[in-house]
Design brief:
Chains A, B: Pfam families: HTH_20. Chains A, B: InterPro entries: ArsR-like_HTH (IPR011991), HTH_ArsR_DNA-bd_dom (IPR001845), WH-like_DNA-bd_sf (IPR036388), WH_DNA-bd_sf (IPR036390). Chains A, B: It comes from Streptomyces anandii. Chains A, B: This is ArsR/SmtB family transcription factor. 2 copies of one chain form a homodimer. With about 110 residues, chain A is of the alpha+beta class. The first copy, chain A, is built from 5 helices and 3 strands, in the order H-H-E-H-E-E-H-H. In chain A, strands 1-3-2 form a 3-stranded antiparallel beta sheet. In chain A, a hairpin with a 2-residue loop joins strand 2 and strand 3. Chain A has one domain: Arc Repressor Mutant, subunit A. The first copy, chain A, is globular, with a radius of gyration of 13 Å. Chains A and B meet through helix 1, helix 2 and helix 5 of A and helix 1, helix 2 and helix 5 of B.
Chain lengths: ~110, ~110
């Protein structure tokens, strides 16, 4: 059960998805989700203000890139990989091939 | 000879490229350049203010997506396809596979 609004797969828009991915912090979040597991909305090692991070998650969710699940006091976030791959074949692979960790190297 | 500044291929940044592509007008411009020919900076059939269009071209050029060549009073613009494909393999193909003409259908 999802408590937050998520766009349907058929409503995903390429420009919106690219815009959502076009940010170094959001690319880093994407990379961390790429393994397929749910991750915490406050991942370790990111030097980003909580409100800024919350905004990044919102942009990713509203673009249809992520699914957010509320578990107690935590939000768990996962990549909507299958839906994105079906809608925009090759896009995530191309982006993740390049989206190396740029923030954790700082 | 280029009169405008263009980033070097090795300086292209994925987040910047994705952000530049994350706009419906710029996706339409990309699609029009995809055949490989130079196109005019004022392509037909786009209902976009000249100043807005100029800004879109600037964003694409500064991201390293396009090369602008000045010919008399005209600016001719082409896609830096080979450099983008080398730097971000598969990205343009994935984007162009989806970047159908959304503005000319209006």
């Amino acid at each position: 059960m999802r408590a937050l609004n998520h766009p349907r797969a058929e409503d995903l828009d390429l420009a919106t998805v690219l815009h959502a991915l076009g940010d170094p912090v959001r690319l880093e979040l994407l990379r961390r989700m790429a393994a397929g597991d749910e991750i915490s909305c406050s991942p370790e090692g990111l030097i980003v203000a909580r409100s800024t991070l919350s905004n990044h998650w919102r942009i990713l969710r509203e673009a249809g890139i992520t699914a957010t699940r509320i578990s107690g006091k935590t939000r768990l976030i996962s990549l909507r990989r299958a839906e994105l791959d079906a809608r925009f074949p090759g896009l995530l692979n191309a982006v993740l091939g390049e989206a190396t960790s740029i923030l954790t190297e700082l």
